[in-house]
Amino acid sequence: MNSLISRYALEVRQSGKGTGAFFLDKDGAKAVSEEVTQSHLHLSGKKAKKYLKKHFASTWEHFDVNKDGLIEVERMPQFLRWFTENALDIDLQ
Q1: Is residue 83 within 8 Å of 54, Cβ to Cβ?
Q2: Which residues pair with 24 in a beta bridge?
Q3: Which of 24, 34, 66, 70 is the most buried (most CB within 10 A)?
Q4: Is position 32 within any domain?
Q5: Tens of pLDDT along the chain (93 residues)?
Q6: Domain count along the chain
Q7: Which CATH number fits the domain that encloses residue 6?
Q8: 69, 71, 87: which is closest to 79 by C-alpha?
Q9: Phi, psi angle pair for 12, to nearest 5°
């Protein structure tokens, strides 16, 4: 979660102050998915691009239930398990 928040998430701000509510937009979620494809699925190059093309869009559509272009950071471990099709017994924390 620390990596998701510090590297990829956007914090909701009110009156110029952070609220502690973190979300990932589509670009952030794709960047995390690219990282997980390489680090956990051990795919790179054309194989990684093919995997992302096949799995990212459908995973995004499944989790962006409000169609507002944001997913709560708390839901990203589930997102990544869905994205990897539970391919590995990996710790995404």
Answers
A1: no
A2: 71
A3: 24
A4: yes
A5: 889 999 999 999 999 999 999 999 999 999 999 999 999 899 999 999 999 999 999 999 999 999 999 999 999 999 999 999 876 555 555
A6: 1
A7: 1.10.238
A8: 71
A9: -70, 135
For residue 12, the SS3 value is strand
User: 89 lies in a domain?
Assistant: no
Alpha-helix runs per DSSP H in the chain: 2-3, 26-39, 45-63, 76-83
Helices (H) and strands (E) in the chain, counts: 4, 3
* All residues at 6 or more sequence positions from 46 whose CB lies less than 8 Å from its CB, including other chains: none
In a domain, 14, yes or no: yes
Tell me the whole-structure pTM to 2 decimals. 0.86
Provide φ and ψ at 45, rounded to 5°.
60, -135
Distance CA 50, CA 43 (A): 10
